[in-house]
Specification:
The chain is mostly helical. The chain has 5 helices and no strands. Helix 1 packs across helix 3, helix 2 crosses helix 3 and helix 4 packs across helix 5. The longest helix is centred in the C-terminal third of the chain and has 14 residues.
């Protein structure tokens, strides 16, 4: 058996599988819960699922951290919202008011039409 610097035997970890009887890793438990419950499941629901499925009591802070890491790595795709950037909803029913047109007119007068068009392109 290999020894580390202190002289103790080095810890050899085997991958967690059902064949060797080891319990799955915490990250794998969270992945499994997200696969079952969906990518937008709250840490409370994930905690309940892990508790009932694996009989393991993970703190919700760890679950939230693992979920963030999984999403950041792109392993889970969120179904919330629509694709693209979130933005403001139009005021009213999408109708244009005279005040709005006067505001745009004053911006065109101050900045020029090309600059206002570029600003609109950036914002849309």
């Amino acid at each position: 058996m290999a020894k580390n610097r202190v002289g103790r035997p080095a810890k050899i970890e085997e991958p967690a599988t059902e064949t060797n009887g080891a319990r799955p890793k915490k990250m794998d438990m969270v992945r499994g819960a997200l696969a079952t419950l969906g990518p937008d499941a709250k840490p409370e629901k994930i905690h309940e699922h892990i508790l009932t499925t694996y009989n393991e009591d993970l703190p919700k802070t760890i679950i939230s951290n693992y979920k963030s890491n999984i999403k950041r790595k792109g392993e889970v795709v969120s179904t919330a919202g629509s694709p693209g950037r979130p933005g403001r909803k139009p005021a009213g029913n999408g109708e244009i008011r005279i005040d709005d047109l006067e505001t745009v007119r004053s911006l065109v007068g101050r900045l020029g039409a090309d600059h206002v068009r570029r600003l609109v392109d950036v914002l849309s």
